[in-house]
Predict the 3D structure of the following.
Amino acid sequence: MDIFGESKTIEYKELIPSKSIKYMKTVIAFSNCNGGKIIFGIHDQTHEIIGFDKEDIFTKIDAITNAISDSCYPTIVPDVTPLTIEGKTVIVVEIKSGQQKPYYIKSEGIQNGVYIRVGATTRLADDFMIKELMFEGENRYFDQSICYSMKITDKDIDNLCQSLKQSALQNCVTDDEKNSIKEVTKNQLIQWGVLVEKDGELLPTYAFALLSGDYHFSTKIQCAIFRGNDRVIFLDRREFDGPIQRQVDDAYNYILLKINLGAKIEGLYRQDVYELPEASIREIIVNSVVHRSYLDPGNIQIALYDNRLEITSPGMLAQGVTIEKMKEGYSKVRNRAIANAFVYMKYIEEWGSGIPRIFREFEERGLKEPEIIDYDGDLRINLYRPNYNVLETKGDQEETKRDQKETKGDQEQTKKNYIFNKFESDLDEIDRMIIDLIIENPKITQRDLSLKLGLTKTPIQKRQKHLIALGIIKRTGGRRYGYWEIIENKKEN
């Protein structure tokens, strides 16, 4: 047996404490989390093997087994065995992850006796974590439980059905995909767990509140931009609320606006490409929304630093999930109703494929491998930015950027002058501003146009239809990866 440091599933004790409470907290924590081993007879700091006298080893094993049986509730049955290492005998206490959560120390009660494992430490569980353990122990899902503070009408249900369908259509890439999208019905919402039928009445679950953006139960995605590699110098911040599916889109588009857009040459053509894979960014944001703990009062946080994009999602890993398993494609649903809706809306394509695909995309792009961290009870993923433009040598980078910026600026100004002169009688000031913003960023969304111009989406949509009718702009591709194209071709009457 190799002796390494303490971890989420390993703890060392030099001696067996006379007061069992000193290690019983760890027994409880292992039972409430992913299990683990307590090894008696090894120094916890130096990892020196101390061992016990062989004559009374089984007496000590019996004492440990009885202490666990007497102190814990529900009953925990450990596997306690002697093990000889380097000629010395230690005692290994293996605790399986329990099925009757939450486990707690009898003398302290359920409010004060529930412990969890965070990294290599054992901690008292917060109230929300106790509730989550209860749901897990009963094989239930929080997002499928009734949100009694929320009152809904048939119109609210119809609005949600239409909203979900609209999101699904927007996420389609081809016409065949769009034609395959079916209507969402009340029965479908019941089947997913978004609605619950009780005493002849349809009641909303927390998933209904989250998918509709109802204020009775709302969460946010918080985005921030920092200079440097820590949170000392703050540059910009945005918060996105409303329906969680819209939060995904808003956060994704905001990050794309803030990261670098470079270029690569394929044959004779120059193609714009972001410094980080777009699909990976979106996948991580979707995962954080679908798999986070909604019992945890915190918000999803996305922070962009000079060296990385950092996404932190509230809640520990779900039962049975480890970082190693995630990399291999193992996935366990924490919010079943939300997951069902996100599959329908085409935010999720194949179960378990997301994380392996992200690692593969980063490897193919020559980028540093993403980092998954069990961070103080939350899950954090770091996507590392390139140190330089991978499409150019570092020595030529700045000069190339200056040349490209000057060339692009000249081209854009020429294009704008041509359009504004040719369509002078058809365009007002807002039309010109929209054209300016589209030329600057062909992937700009209606929401971003609304924010920059201080208008609602309705007038933005009317203006875009006007420009399309004039033959100035057209939409290429779907909502997810599409972009606006200036075609500069006035319609003939």
User: Anything to note?
Assistant: DSSP finds 17 helices and 20 strands in the chain.
